[in-house]
Amino acid sequence: MTLQSDATATLTEPQIGIEFYQLLADKVLDGGSVTREEALAILEAPDAHVPAILAAGFQIRNRYFGRTVQLNFLMSAKSGLCPEDCHYCSQSKVSEAPVPKYNILKREELMKAAEQASAQGAKTYCLVISARGPNEREMAAVEQIVPEIKAKYDLDICACLGLLNQEQAERLKACGVDRVNHNLNTSETHYAEVCTTHTYADRIQTLKHVRAAGMEMCSGGIIGMDERPEDVVSMAMDLRELGVHSIPLNFLESIEGTPFQGKATLTPNKCLKALAMFRFVIPDRELRISGGREVHLRTLQPMGLYVANSMFVGDYLTTKGQPPEADRQMIEDLGFEVTTKVE
Known about the structure:
Layout: H1 19-29, H2 36-43, H3 50-65, E1 68-78, H4 107-119, E2 124-129, H5 136-152, E3 156-160, H6 166-175, E4 179-181, H7 200-213, E5 216-218, E6 221-223, H8 229-242, E7 246-251, H9 268-281, E8 286-289, H10 293-296, H11 301-304, E9 310-312, H12 324-333, E10 337-339
Parallel strand pairs: 1-2, 1-9, 1-10, 2-3, 3-4, 4-5, 6-7, 7-8, 8-9
Helix pairs in contact: 1-3, 2-8, 2-9, 3-9, 4-5, 5-6, 6-7, 8-9
């Protein structure tokens, strides 16, 4: 392997050691881009290299985000009842998991959750519905509640409503939505193993509608779905090409009753290498440790924040997170600070 850089230094396969990651960080900090080959080397590095990978990755994180951590709060505004067959999801039509099923919540419940998000120091309130895409009633509910939330609380709004057309994206922009989440989840080549009721191209098109409407794109993926390291790298490269603003990286919780029950075979070090790879590939964008961090990072959760600069606080859609107080303590113990704005 050769480290491609404007500099004269190169690194070949027999020489790859912990110095590789510092050379790679220097390249990124000098304005260079990580190649597929270099990104793959991070994912396939020996576990003994993880401290060096995180040390180099932290320099990139520190350049763009300092020692700040952004908090995001998830609100499941509509649960279950989804016609899609995403194999990882407990709310899909092929899931037998016992999850709550309800249509979009009333205004009072959504406002109460916004108050909770604000009290927990969140920067972003993420309003999520389970659906292929929003119907007119759901669009109207979002258009009503978003201006109310923004008038009362200092929160950015991220809407995760499924597939969107251009008109819907423009309506979301007009009512005050700041960003839309629509995860790629995996690579294009692996996507059919994850979902068959829509395509990778459908997801890309939704993100393009969001971008054209002038909102920020939030998009990431899930690690642990039998993908190859090459698939994880391809997803990162596609996200970089799209120019996404925020990248949530999830670690599969193989929920009983879903097609992916019992599938995830992750270790804390594998999760850390994946987080670091995304920081090297997309150095200046929000990188969020998302679902499954408590299960798969376990006692190494704090180490993830040496490369990631964002996390969810509170619970996820159908699974529990650790108490917000524990998240706050973890951030404080690292010597980091919560911020409600990008530094």
